[in-house]
Structures are given as C-alpha cells and as structure tokens.
Write a structure and sequence with these properties.
The structure holds 2 protein chains of 2 kinds.
Chain A lengths: L5 E12 L2 E12 L3 E5 L6 H9 L4 E8 L2 E2 L5 H6 L2 E4 L11 H8 L12 H7 L1 H4 L11 H13 L5 E5 L7 H16 L3 E6 L2 H7 L2 E6 L2 E7 H6 L1 H7 L3
Helix pairs in contact in A: 3-6
Chain B lengths: L1 H31 L6 H18 L2 H31 L4 H23 L15 E4 L2 E4 H23 L1 H11 L1 H6 L4 H21 L11 H16 L4 H21 L5 H14 L28 H15 L1 H4 L2 H26 L8 H18 L3 H23 L4 H21 L1 H4 L5 E2 L10 H23 L2 H11 L1 H6 L4 H27 L1 E2 L6 H14 L4 H21 L3 H15 L4 H10 L1 H6 L17
Antiparallel strand pairs in B: 1-2, 3-4
Helix pairs in contact in B: 1-5, 1-6, 1-8, 1-9, 1-10, 2-3, 2-4, 2-8, 2-9, 3-8, 4-25, 5-6, 9-10, 9-17, 14-19, 14-22, 14-23, 14-24, 15-16, 15-17, 15-22, 16-17, 16-22, 19-22, 20-22, 23-24
The chains are: A alpha/beta, B mainly alpha.
C-alpha cells in the first residue's frame, strides 16, 4: 500500500482514558475502496482505535491522515464532515427517535468523492427498515438497530466507514445480510475499516487484516496470509 | 362549587407561566446537561425589560410587541452568556455549573437593582384584556384566560418544533447522546447555543407575561427557580410534556392548597412531590441519568490520616486560635466566632459532598433548622443555652432525616435540585408561619447563658465546638463507615455487590451532616442574639458551597481554610461596597472558570508537581460516564 493512494493512514497513535494508556504506537492504513479488518479479542483496543479516529477519547497523540490531511486535531463533527463515517459497536441508535428521524440526524450534503445516499436507497439496501419508518429506535431488534445505525452513518455520504464489530450479537441469518450489505457498500466505492472478533465474518468481506492485542498491532497482512499463519491466529484470536 | 372552578382556572393560568419557565430549563438541561440556576434571573429580567418597553410603547400592539421584544432581548443576553461562560464549563462537574450560573444570578440581581432601582414596579394592564369574565357568577380576569390558552399553545408549538424540523430532531437526538450526534457531523456548539437561547427566550417570555398580573420585584428570580426545580424534578428533566404536566399539578396544588391549608400551602406541594418521587424517582416522563462511575481519570491523591508533623501543626493552629482573645477586641472576637461557625457549617457540607459524593444545594435548611430550633427552645420553653445547643442539632438531624429520606433516593443533579427545593420550602415555612417563627420579624432575644456571655467566653465555646466537630467528622472519614461511604461514592454498583446499601449509607451521612450543620446554626443564633428567615435562604446554602469550593472539595482542611477566607472576605465586602452581590457573583464565576479544584486543591496540585498535572490533561476532573464497553 503506497502512501499516495492511502485513504486513511494512522501512525504512532497513543490513546488514553484519563491517566490510563489504552493504545500504544498503533499504525495502519486503509486504501481507496479497500475493506480492512482490525481483529482482536475483547479489550484489545479495537473500539478505542475507532473512537480515537473520531476524536471521542480523552486524549490521543500521533498522526491521523485522512485524504492526506492531518485530522488529529479536528473536532469530532469536523472529522465526520470530511467523510469519515462511524458506526459504533453499541449502535447508539437514538431510542426516542423514529427510523426516519434517526436517518435525518445523519444527513449531510452530498460529496463529490463518495456515493450519495437517500433514505429510499437505504431502504432498498435494508428492506426491513422500509417497513418500520415510524418505529422508535428503542423498539427495534438488535439486527434492525444494526441496519439502522449503518444506514444513519451512510446518510452522511462518507467515503470511509468505520464499522465497529458489525456482526456482534446478531443471528447467523442477519450476519449474512450484513456481509452482503458491506459488500454492496464496497461496490459503491466506499473504503471500509471494520473491527471483528469473528475471523469467519471478517474473512468473507475483507482484503487485508491487522491484529490488535493489548493496544498494540501484532500482525498485518492479507487475509490469505492470516489464514496461512495458524500460529498468529492461535496466539491472538483463539478464545 | 363556583369558587373551586375559579380557583381551578387561576391554577391553570399560573401553570402556564410556570410551564414557560420550567420547560426552558428542562430543554437546556436535556441537551447541555447544565442545570441553569440563572434561569430565574432571566425570568426576572424578562419582566423588567418588558416593564420598561411597555412603558414606552402605546396600545395593544405596543404592549405585545414589548413583551415579545423583551423576551428576544433577554434571549440574546442568554446567547452571549452561553458563548462567553457556559462553553468553558460544559466539561466541568455539575456542581460547578450550578455554582457558576448561581454567580450569574447574583450579578443579575445587583444589575437589576442598579438599572431599575430598589422599588417594586407595577406594569401596565394588557390593553383590551384588563377586564374580567364572569364564570358561574364569579369574576375571572380575562388575562388569565389568555394565559390558560397560551400554555398549551406553546406546548404544541414546541412539539412541532421538536418533531417537524431538522433542528428539533437534532435537539432530541443530542438529548439522548451528544457524542453520537457529533460523530454524525453535527456541530454541537451552535446546537447548544440555539437550545440555550430558546430556553432563555421561554423563561423571559414567562416573566414578561407576568407584568399585568403581579408587581415586578427583586425576589422573582429565587422564588420562581425553586418552583421551577420542583416542576422539572417532578416532570422529568429534559421532558417538555413532563414539565407541562408537573406545572399544572403544582399550580393547581398551590391554588387549592390555599383553600385547604392557608398559610402553609407549600407543605401540600411538598407532600405531593415526595409521593411522586417515591413512585417515580425520575419524574413523570424523565429517564434515569447515567451515574455509575463518576470520575474516570480523576487522579485524586488518596486520603491519609495526619502525619505526626501535621498533627503538631494542627495543634499549633488550635492553640493560636485559642489565644485570640488576648489579641482581639469584642468586634474581632465576634467575627472570630462567626468564622468558627462558618467552619463547622462548611465542614459539615464538605463531609457529605466529598466523602459522601452528595452535592447538596440546600444545606441552609439544616443550619436554619438548628438556628430556629435553638431560638424556639429559648423563646417557647425558656430553655437555657446549654439545652438549646442540643435542641439545635437535633432539629437539624430531624430535618435531615425527613428530607434525606427522599433525597438519597436520587443522585446527581436530581439530588442537588431536590435539596434546594426542600431548603426553599423550609424557608417559606419560616417566612409564612408568623405565629411560630415571627415571619420576617424573626425571633429576638436569643442570648447565651451568663458564663458564656462575654465575647471571649463565647468565642472559646465556639472554638471548642468547632474543634470537636471538625475532628469528629474527620475521624469519620477514616472510620469503617467512612470507607463504606467512599466505596458507595466511587462505585455504587461494586459497593452494593459486596453488601453495602447505597441509600442507607448515604442517608446516615446526610443525617450526620445535617446534625453538624444544625449545631452551627444553633451557635449562630446565640452569636447574633436573633434569627431571621434568611438563614434558610438559598444564598446561605450557596455560602457553604462556595466555602467548600474555595478550599477545594476534596479536603477537610480545605473547607476550614475556605470558610475562614470566605467569611472574612464577605464581611469586608459588605462593608466596602453596596454591590457585594455583583462582586461576589463575579468572583464565583471567576473561581469556577479559573480554579475548578478550589484554592487549596489547586495549590496542592502545584505542590504535587508535574506528575499530577500530567495526569490531569484537561486541567479539571472530568465526570465521564463511560459505558462499560467504552474501555475496550
């Protein structure tokens, strides 16, 4: 991956919650149109990595270059407006707001370099949502909420989407649907960084993978390389 | 029958004004998480500005234009306040936010005094609406009928704003999860400013609408804020509809309470509030506020019992204090006694706030109960000082047991608001129950026994009480009970998981704190020889808070220093300027912005060196309610 074509480049990222350091010199990159998986066990620092990218941790140091520009000092909303879409692990659907209203919160103007999404296009991608436009987010199943939170982020027409454990806690059938949706997003030209504990799911959709453990990057390579390397898989991913 | 109908209509009219003030506070809290103490001040400003404008503008159009322009002007002032002050303290602990906005209230009070003078003002009647309509043979002011319609109209308009506009949807989303809204590309800065401006507009509009009904006075701010707190606590913080329902309930209770319990209708309101909060601790339509882990990343130095060197220092300080009668005259000694009483008062609050994590905004209640308890013991039962000094703390204890039973069911801002409401209710009772308390005339002739009547003897008595009190409270911090209390404060869930009941532990702490405050109040009554309702007023509660804040919430010694510095400064300030509230308010605002850890806390931070500072990147302890998964 050459620096010139990288969509997102992170170098020497250190993050803290209060006095506690969570990430240590984390570095990785995501290329244009690429799907990259960030793998690791519970507590490895995957969610913190995503929050650091969005400026949602207490303190972080290091370089975060998005579209070759340093975004490490920007406020969260400005990072989002540059085209970095964030789908949090715990979904954070607005429980009191209807599906339509949740989408409205995410809406941002169209962008030259990324696909433009409308509620209708998203309802086509996730037909379940189309049937519950007026339902409050708090009264949806976990799978439906996951679809909504992804759709809400897409309403901002991001060019890179951060998906934090998109398969977590979902039924196998919904996971398949989710994989299809992510591949559809990829076909639209989106770059995607997703975190996963589930290697099987990541393998279905990812081009490359990094392994994170105790806040440090332990492996980087293609999915095929990871498949071949049982030692790494056993050490960092096996439960 | 007719009387009841008319009372009911009056209640509805009052509900509308109350709703306007309360829903603004509720909306502001929902999004910014700031309980805006200055809300009452803006309500009052709305009335004053409207008074001035309607004096100049003619006719019906002029009147209504005056009302609306007044609300708009005050809202603009609110927007400026949000941008200049609140933006700096959104990340500060809620206690400091309340204090800072109270500081603003103090400043507004003196500014109003400067601009409009000390006298009450009577505004014009609303043109065309100055008559009355006959309902079942009794007259009802036409203006009241207008207000009755206006309340639901505003509720409907707000509902449309919140549900049918993008701005409203963003506001509701931010009420649920601010960070997520930011992560979706919304600039919260302007959302916050917008919400605050809207809230202030509603408060000022509510105040402006009052001018045809009641005189415009300097007391409007604090009298409305207590009622507003009750309304939003009952209705549920952040809920507009909840505020409306609660406003109707409270206003009707007031209207009918006057028929049932003339004089002390507030007691009825208190009972209803208590019942509602026991059944629904978060109010009608509110949601529990995330508490749990309070201060991630706050690097507090662990408390330790005194080292031998410190003990020697403390003993020397006490000895020095005991020698004061050799140096000071009778005025100096009475100031000294007042300072010592302030020390007891401050330390009693510090115990509950720091060790207990209970930020009380109504500590005056227990101080005042102690003072009134002692004074009434002397006046009614003819008890000597020694006995009255026992009655005082017992009265404080009794008050703490009754009020605390409700308060410890809540936490965080709900707790703070409820303590304030209870203190305000106690104040009202002292003010209104003239037969017992003498009302505004107070109770006179509360003098110490002969042996303690000389300034030096009374000073020594106060010193002895203060030393014992501070040592006992400090000892409690390091007792098993203190450990339990701190465990509950630091992590309620974990403490409860090992069998410590949060409510019971905090209830005991609340009672201990109230007793000590009552003791301070009893001494105060004997120091002054008389007692007036203002010992129960909001400013007295704030005095205690500022003393604790000044010294740094975290340390007992800090509160002692804070009490000494603050009492001396305020005595000097009162004599040096007529605008003491303006100065004091500005000082409070400055302290909150500049020294979020208090003076002693900040000094200790400097002494502790760069390591401490490195550990506190934001300069302040940040209350972050991170969900458990947030640590991944």
């Amino acid at each position: 991956m050459s620096a010139a074509s990288a969509k997102l480049e992170v170098a020497a990222l250190n993050s803290f919650y209060g006095p506690v350091q969570i990430l240590f010199d984390v570095g990785f990159s995501v290329g244009r149109g690429e799907v990259v998986a960030l793998l690791g066990r519970n507590g490895a620092g995957k969610s913190t990595t995503f929050k650091s990218l969005m400026g949602l941790v207490d303190r972080r140091e290091g370089a975060i270059r998005f579209e070759a520009e340093d975004i490490a000092r920007l406020p969260t909303y400005e990072i989002a407006r540059r085209g970095l879409g964030y789908v949090p692990e715990d979904r954070r659907v607005f429980a009191e707001l209807t599906v339509e209203e949740n989408l409205e919160v995410g809406r941002q103007p169209a962008r030259g370099d990324a696909a433009t999404w409308t509620p209708e296009r998203l309802y086509a991608l996730f037909p379940n949502l189309a049937e519950m436009r007026r339902r409050p987010g708090g009264q949806m199943s976990g799978g439906e909420q996951q679809m909504l939170t992804i759709s809400r982020t897409l309403m901002g027409n991001p060019s890179l989407v951060l998906l934090d454990e998109p398969s977590e806690g979902l039924a196998p059938k919904i996971i398949e649907q989710m994989a299809d949706a992510i591949l559809a997003m990829k076909r639209e030209g989106l770059s995607i960084l997703l975190s996963e504990q589930n290697l099987h799911f990541a393998r279905l959709i990812s081009d490359r993978a990094y392994i994170l453990e105790k806040g440090r990057i332990r492996f980087s390579g293609t999915v095929a390389e990871l498949e071949a390397n049982t030692a790494v898989r056993d050490q960092y991913l096996a439960v | 029958m007719a009387l009841y109908v008319v009372q009911f209509l009056t209640g509805l009219a009052n509900a509308s004004s109350l709703f306007l003030a309360a829903c603004g506070l509720s909306v502001i809290f929902g999004v910014t998480r700031i309980v805006n103490f200055a809300h009452g001040a803006f309500y009052m400003l709305g009335a004053y500005v409207a008074y001035s404008l309607t004096q100049r503008l003619e006719g019906g159009l002029g009147f209504w234009a005056g009302i609306l322009v007044a609300a708009a002007v005050v809202a603009l002032v609110g927007a400026l306040l949000e941008m200049s002050l609140l933006r700096r303290i959104y990340r500060a602990p809620e206690l400091f936010q309340l204090l800072a906005t109270f500081g603003v209230t103090l400043m507004v009070e003196d500014l109003v005094h400067l601009i409009w003078g000390p006298q009450d003002l009577v505004g014009p009647r609303a043109p065309g609406l100055d008559g009355a309509v006959t309902v079942l043979g009794l007259p009802v002011p036409t203006y009241d009928l207008l207000l009755i319609v206006l309340g639901p109209l505003v509720l409907g308009a707000l509902w449309l704003l919140m549900h049918r506009t993008r701005w409203g949807v963003l506001v509701r989303a931010a009420t649920e999860d601010r960070d997520m809204v930011a992560a979706l590309g919304v600039n919260q800065k302007w959302l916050f400013t917008g919400v605050f401006t809207l809230g202030i507009f509603l408060a000022a509009f509510g105040g402006a609408l009052q001018i045809p009904r009641t005189a415009v006075t300097h007391q409007m701010d604090l009298s409305i804020i207590a009622e507003v707190f009750v309304v939003v606590v009952i209705g549920g913080l952040g809920s507009i509809t909840g505020a409306f329902l609660a406003a109707v309930l409270i206003a009707e209770l007031n209207a009918f309470g006057i028929l049932v319990l003339p004089g002390i209708s507030l007691v009825l309101m208190f009972l209803v509030m208590a019942v509602v909060l026991v059944i629904r601790p978060w109010g009608f339509l509110g949601k529990p506020i995330q508490t749990g882990v309070k201060t991630i990343g706050e690097a507090t130095r662990p408390w330790r019992p005194w080292s031998p060197a410190t003990s020697v220092l403390v003993a020397a300080a006490i000895l020095l204090a005991a020698l004061m009668p050799l140096l000071l005259g009778s005025y100096g000694l009475s100031v000294g006694a007042q300072i010592l009483i302030a020390v007891v008062f401050a330390v009693s609050l510090q115990f509950q706030m720091s060790t207990g994590g209970l930020d009380s905004f109504g500590h005056a209640a227990y101080f005042g109960l102690g003072a009134y308890g002692a004074a009434l013991a002397v006046e009614w039962s003819g008890l000597p000082m020694e006995a009255a000094l026992l009655v005082g703390p017992l009265a404080g204890l009794a008050g703490a047991l009754v009020f605390g039973w409700f308060c410890v069911r809540l936490s965080g801002v709900y707790f703070a608001m409820l303590t304030l409401a209870f203190a305000q209710i106690t104040w009202s009772v002292a003010f209104q129950w003239v037969e017992v308390t003498g009302g505004d005339n107070g109770i006179l002739g509360v003098w110490p026994s002969d042996w303690a009547s000389s300034p030096a003897a009374f000073y020594w008595l106060t010193l002895a009480v203060a030393v014992v009190c501070v040592l006992v409270l400090r000892h409690l911090v390091f007792s098993p009970f203190g450990y339990r209390l701190r465990a509950v404060r630091d992590s309620t869930v974990r403490a409860e998981a090992i069998g410590i009941s949060r409510q019971r532990t905090q209830y005991v702490a609340f009672a201990v704190s109230g007793t000590a405050a009552g003791l301070a109040g009893a001494l105060f009554a004997f120091l002054k020889g008389s007692i007036f309702p203002d010992v129960l007023s909001i400013p007295t509660s704030i005095d205690a808070l500022v003393m604790v804040l000044l010294g740094g919430v975290a340390t007992v010694s800090g509160s002692v220093v804070g009490a000494i510095v603050y009492t001396m400064a305020s005595i000097w300030l009162m004599s040096a300027t007529d605008l003491s509230r303006l100065v004091l308010g500005a000082v409070i605002v400055f302290l909150v912005v500049a020294f979020p850890q208090g003076i002693v806390g900040s000094l200790a931070g400097l002494v502790a060196g760069p390591l401490e500072r490195w550990r506190r990147p934001a300069g302040a302890a940040r209350p972050v309610a991170l969900p458990a998964e947030g640590r991944q």
